[in-house]
């Protein structure tokens, strides 16, 4: 329901609906004046949101919330990490099934950076969290396709845990916590930078002690993004950025109102080495983890 609601209310959908309604009004001689006003309002909103960097600004606020990890060999200030989590969303399950070849999306950095961290931290337990984000066509799952992708690139996934039933980030956080019982040591969480604030908030609420590792950036660092000197008006504009920004900010607000996150806009903790006091249990992975080995 949430995904359908966000789809109906995203800027692109509203723009198309506004155009259709405007033309319907213009076809009726009694409503021509209102049709012109509505059409003018729709075009004005399109120029303001699509051609100006509103979406880029909004995305940049999300992406800059958690700092990029510039030294992946010394995560958690050099202290040990318990494991590495990577969220789904990097593969096209339907196209993979129909073409019988792994098809990836624009945020494949989630998986490539996951592989790099796995090699750099062979002591860490590894887990993939992501069942199926589609509403109807649910086979194969993202976990199945991502596992195939990792194996085809030479990664040993024998001891890696794949969560393949969740439909969204909230469910993935809860299911993986119940299954893995992660303990008090921090786990590295890999996802797209724009998705990181919401993901961290949901995973913290579920009980995880999370160290954010944002990837898949779409905006330039800090205030450089969207500055007048780097922005040029273009046609047909960039509604895609506005769509994604609205989705994430709406999902953040929705999760906070439902008390699925502790704060509206989750931020880095002062001391991320402190784990949740409610779960002193050790992780349930086997003691040996050969996942980081890459076959030749």
From TrEMBL:
Residues 275-296 are annotated as: Disordered. The chain crosses the membrane at residues 6-26, 38-59. Signal peptide: none annotated. Residues 83-249 form the DUF218 domain. The keyword Transmembrane helix applies. GO terms for cellular component: plasma membrane. Keywords: Membrane, Transmembrane, Transmembrane helix. One of its GO terms (biological process) is Gram-negative-bacterium-type cell wall biogenesis. Pfam families: DUF218. PANTHER family: ENVELOPE BIOGENESIS FACTOR ELYC, INNER MEMBRANE PROTEIN, PROBABLE PERMEASE. This is DUF218 domain-containing protein. It comes from Magnetovibrio blakemorei.
